Amino acid sequence: MSEVEEKGRKSSEESTDDSEEEDSEEEPKLKYERLTNGVTEILLKDAASCMTVHDKSGEHVGICSEDGKVQVVGLYTREGFHEIFDCPIKVVALHPQFSKSNNKQFVTGGNKLLMYERNWLNRWKTSVIHEGEGSITNIKWRANLIAWANNVGVKIYDLSTKQRITNVLRDNTSLRPDMYPCSLCWKDNANLIIGWGSSVKICAVKERDPTEMRDLPSRYVEIVSAFETEFFISGLAPLADQLVTLYFVKEASEHMEEEFRARPRLDIIQPLPETCEEISSDALTVRNFHDNECRDYRLEHSEGESLFYIISPKDIVVAKERDQDDHIDWLLDKKKYEEALMAAEISFKNIKRHDVQKIGMAYINHLVEKGDYDTAARKCQKVLGKNMDLWENEVYRFKTIGQLKAISQYLPRGDLRLRPAIYEMILHEFLQTDYEGFATLIREWPGELYNNMTIVQAVNHHLKKDPTNRTLLTTLAELYTYDQRYDRALEIYLRLRHKDVYQLIHKHNLFSSIEDKIVLLMDFDKEKAVDMLLDNEDKISTDRVVEELKDRPELLHVYLHKLFKRDHHKGQRYHERQISLYAEYDRPNLLPFLRDSTHCPLEKALEICQQRNFVEETVFLLSRMGNCRQALQMIMEELADVDKAIEFAKDQDDAELWEDLISYSIDKPPFITGLLNNIGTHVDPILLIHRIKEGMEIPNLRDSLVKILQDYNLQILLREGCKKILVSDSMSLLQKMHRTQMRGVRVDEENICESCHTTILPSDTAQPFSVVVFHCRHMFHKECLPSGAIPGVQFCNICSAKRRGPGSGILEMKK
Predict the structure, then answer these.
(1) pLDDT: which is higher, 39 or 637
(2) Which residues sit opposite 149 in a β-bridge?
(3) Where do the CHCR repeats lie (predicted)?
(4) Which phi and psi (to 5°) does residue 658 adopt?
(5) Which of 9-13, 153-157, 738-742 has the lowest mean pLDDT?
(6) Rounded average pLDDT over 610-633
């Protein structure tokens, strides 16, 4: 049994430790400091029982005591009030605007609530607001509302109507009111917070509906929130929509050692209608806290600054909301450097005690200590910014711990940059351990960051040990490029057959450097090399390229072939050489070349084609040279292809060729079939049919004859169709012309005779006259026309000289 209890005790202790660790991760909402400036010395000899806090407008203070004395004293004037009562006075409260002449009012609380007002005669008038319910222990005045607490409960008095508007009864009557006094606090002009014992109530003062008033006050109070707390309340204060509560913690165990007795707590809570939610809780170590009771603590607050004063007999502690500096302090204490840095960057205008860069440096130091070098290096970009001295210090630190690679990719490389020695140190580090990383840095870093010659020498030194290392060679070429030694870079690129060689040549206009390296370029990539050479003929002539490639005919052919494709007339002096190059390396393109070239020597081409027995090319050359009969003979004898022979005859359209073709085919049935199928549109098939020997078997003769007949019928149909279309169009045009010529022609005084050039109409139209108007719209006086050769037929003198046709006909107008 005892073992179980011991285990249970240990587990509870462990869970308590865990909860404390979790609580410690929550950031406190308030910070604390003791009120000094002589207060500590005063409290060593005396004890504080109450305190008031006011803003700059407070010019008077009210004082009362157990012996009945009441004083109202002006801090900056001599005016005041002095009175001695015959009973203890527990509390006094001044009008919130007491300094104004029309607000000279205050109330005192003893066994009755008395109101003092100064009248126009400068005398104090006294009136009793309330009495008969025991001693009044607390008064809070806000605007026109006075709240006070006695042994029975809390009342609110409305000065504007001079009526008491509520009575909030005390809940726990078993607690002595002198030991657990009531705490009052106005949140604003209409909300009162009441704390008594362990009970909290929030009361809202509201206007009553005029229809419900009758004999009731114009205002009423509604309790909007009421809940119980775990400890006894010593003071209350508002904080936005939350509450700051000062608790007196009374331990249940009487045997607890004195040093472990509970300290007072200052909590921030969120009130709800029937309960509350704890936001934060702090235990306060005030002097002599183990001797204090609930009545010994007070909580006062300053509305304008969110300051909270915790008063105890021997100590006064000030609590205030934590600012951004405090938040950063807490984050740094918890080693949450990244959050601290982010908070400082966001609020850099508001922080006073911290510096963004110093926080960032602390974060980098923390990351380095953890061994997270990459993150530390990445943060350097943000933290170090433009401070080159800090950058150099960090680089040397990373070198000391052997992590130069981590920081290399984050170094400044723009307008702001470090000394060249820093970059060279890092490049040497990579060159010793990582060729690929070294090459990456050379590609990424501008060449102005470091001394190029120094790095070139270092790379050459390493190449002596490993002369074929492709990474080092490529990097060396890039370094030569940065140093504008392009010829050296070009040699390396060509040796490596690097893809950037053509870009290098174009970018830096290195055509003069490649005149003796054309073969190397062609061996690397024929297509790119030829395109580059042809695009830059003005820089490297065709003759120069041909000279360089004369010992590599296969490469020469590629170059000349592309040259010919671009322009048939360029390189015409090399067309004779191209015949043999095509015959050797590219026969499929030989025939197109022979067709397109106008500078090719036909005899030389024929000789080469005959030597190599290129029948199709030979046929083309023979036909081009005018020897069509020999060409046709080669097709029939060498190729034995009747279709090609027929096609050749069609192209030449020569009757003698057709005769030769028929004569050659007459004893070859397959040739006859081919001719019968294709000859119909060019030669009369009867000529072929009559020459066929009787009894000769011809394949597919019937089909061929049927096809001939069908072709003939098709030709007849086409002719008839064309004839109908022609007749229809002729009739349509004739009718159109007839309608046009039958239209009337307007003749007026503006028209003239084309012969005598006088007005066509006479000045006296009453006299008879004759006018001749031709269809060409030329007009004449009848007497101005010569008599025609054909009686009754006349023609326009002007148009008949040019043509004779329908437009020269006549229209005669007589009157």
Answers:
(1) 39
(2) 138, 154
(3) 530-674
(4) -65, -40
(5) 9-13
(6) 78
pLDDT digits (tens, 9 = 90+) for 357-385: 888 888 888 888 888 888 888 888 888 88
Phi, psi of 805 (to 5 degrees): -165, -165
3-state secondary structure of 691: coil
Rounded CA gap, 196 and 153, in Å? 9
Beta pairing, strands 276-283 & 265-271:
antiparallel
Q: Which residues pair with 131 in a beta bridge?
A: 112
C-alpha 510/C-alpha 533 separation (Å) is 12
Provide the edge-to-edge strand list for the sheet that holds 315-321: 30-34, 315-321, 307-312, 298-302
- pLDDT above 90 coverage of the chain, percent: 11
Distance CA 708, CA 712 (A): 6
Phi, psi of 534 (to 5 degrees): -70, -35
Q: Give me the pLDDT at residue 208, please.
A: 87
* Residue type (1 letter), 512: S
Question: Residue 502's pLDDT is what?
Answer: 77
Question: Alpha-carbon distance 760 to 780, whole Å?
Answer: 7
CA torsion, points 670, 672, 677, 680, in degrees to nearest 10?
170
φ, ψ of residue 565 to 5 degrees: the values are -65, -35
Describe the strand order of the beta sheet including 91-94 as a list of residue ranges.
Answer: 91-94, 105-109, 112-118, 124-131
CA 429-433-436 angle, 5° bins: 100
Residue 419 class from Cβ within 10 Å (0-12 exposed, 13-18 middle, 19+ buried)? middle
3-state secondary structure of 521: helix
CA nearest to 599, candidates 619, 622, 579: 579
Greatest Cα-to-Cα distance within the chain, rounded to the nearest angstrom: 169
What number of CA atoms fall less than 13 Å from residue 749's CA on the CB side?
4
- Measure the CA–CA gap between 163 and 218, rounded to whole angstroms: 9
Provide the edge-to-edge strand list for the sheet that holds 145-149.
138-142, 145-149, 153-158, 163-169
DSSP per-residue letters across 644-679: HHHHHHHHHT-HHHHHHHHHHHTT-HHHHHHHHHH-
Report the pLDDT averaged over residues 251-261. 50
What are the pLDDT digits (tens) for 154-185? 999 999 888 898 889 888 888 888 888 999 99
Burial 190-204 (b: 16+ CB within 10 A, else e): bbbbbbbbbbbbbbe
> Helix %, strand %, coil % for the chain, to 5?
45, 20, 35
